[in-house]
Each structure stands twice: as structure tokens, then as C-alpha cells.
Amino acid sequence: MSLVIDFAQVPAEIDYGTPTSPTDGNGENGENGENGEGDRARDGQPPSAPQQWPPSTSAPRAKTLSVLLVRNISNAADVRADILAVANVQDAGDSGANIVDAAFIDASLVPTLSVLRSAAAMACQNLPALKTKTVHAELIWSLSGNRHVGRALSTFGVQDTSRHVLVAKFDATEGEMEELRGRVEGELVEGVEAIEAALREVCDVARLKKVYGICDAELEIGSIEEGVVVRIAARDCG
Question: For residues 132 and 116, is the Cβ–Cβ distance under 8 A?
Fold first, then answer.
């Protein structure tokens, strides 16, 4: 059985605050850094309006996100090949090719469910004016701390070498999640506590630090989860 995340409430365990400008995914200055808010103040300009965070999840938007965590998968290359095949058909103009209508995410880069939920809320906020081709691609892109869509999809999406995968689908039926489960060969993790524990276990902290530009000094005063969430929020600021 899949885990269903309801968008009715925002997780209370993280104080999101108002994001400023952390580094982007390459450790470089974010868009509020050089020529950002500090320069606006020095030039006598009023500060730009703060980005709303957490993003609004008011209707009409997706109401739920169903999630599967599958560990030690043995067919990552096949899953990725199916996704690419469908993408190629859609590029050719066949809108009926929705056989893999879900987000397949490398679980080693999602430290907690709250991170996934924050990215999902941000993806829903972009409806209907998506920056990517589907809302599920938008979810994967929203996990990124920068605006490069291709880089985000290749980093956070399932790869041939992925060992643990999160499968996520908005407003899914039980039958749809069962069909998606059948596509991924591996060990299904069930229950919120078990999924949270498994995500902590498989989390690739070293890679997360590199992807998001998180330094050791930052982790002395905050968690890896907080560092990731603030970068997700800050991506569209400025």
C-alpha cells in the first residue's frame, strides 16, 4: 500500500521562514546575492516582495501525493528506459503516451518526506503554467535548488545506477499505484515511520552537500533537511 500525503496542512516541524539567498546547486552565489537585495538597499530601491513560503496549495490543484519507497531495486535501467521512451513519443506529439505518468526519484537525494512534500507543493503552485512537460517532471525539478531543468531531471530522476527509488503520483488511485509498484522490482517500504527511517539510512549526505552547495559550517547550526528545504524555497526568489 502506498503512503498518501494530504496537502491540507503544511508540516509543522520545520520553520520555513522567508528564504533569502543560499548558494545554488553548484555552490555559487544565488540570484539574491550579487546584485540582489543588498544592492537594492544601497541604491535606495525598496526590497523586492518576499516569496510566499510554503507555497499556496489552494484549489484547484492536486490534493494528494501518493508515494512508494522501493529499496534495492534491480531494474532501474528498465524503468528509466520506459520513462525515456514515453518522453520521446510525447515529443513526437502523441499526448496519449501517459503510461509512466509519475515521478521516479532517486531516494538517496531525498532526506525526509517533508522535503518531498515541499517540492510537491511548489510543483502544484506552478499549475497550469508548468516549466516542464508534466506536473510529475515539475515535482522532480522542484527538488532542485537551481533553475536548470535538464540538470535537475538527470540528477534527481531515477538513473540506471539508482538503488533506491521514490515513486510519487498526484491524486492517484489505488489501482494506479499498484500498477506503478509492479514496474519497480525491489523491496517495498511501508508506513510513515519506516519510510522516514529508510530515507535517513539511504540518504547520500556527501552528494546532497555537493548538489545543494551545503557546507559543514551550515550543518553545525542546522540539519541537512533544513538546508535542502531553504534552497528549494529560494530558487524562484529575486
Answer: no
Nearest-angstrom CA–CA distance, 111 and 173: 26
The DSSP code for 34 is: T
- CATH (residue range 3-8+62-234): 3.30.2380.10
pLDDT digits (tens, 9 = 90+) for 197-215: 999 999 999 999 999 999 9
Nearest-angstrom CA–CA distance, 46 and 220: 33
The helix (run of H) or strand (run of E) holding residue 70 is: strand 64-71
Q: Shortest CA distance to 110 belongs to which of 162, 60, 159, 166? A: 166
Residue identified by cell 538503488 is 163
How many CB atoms within 10 Å of residue 223? Answer: 13
Amino acid symbol at 207: R
Q: Where are the domains of the chain?
A: 3-8+62-234
The angle subtended at Cα 203 by Cα 201 and Cα 207, nearest 5°, is 150
Q: Say which range, 14-18, 94-98, 181-185, 232-236, has the weakest mean pLDDT.
A: 14-18
Dihedral (CA of 25, 85, 169, 195) sign: negative
Whether the model clears a pTM of 0.90, i.e. scores above it, the answer is no
Buried b (16+ CB within 10 A) or exposed e, 126-155: beeeeebebbbbbbbbbbbbbeebeebbeb
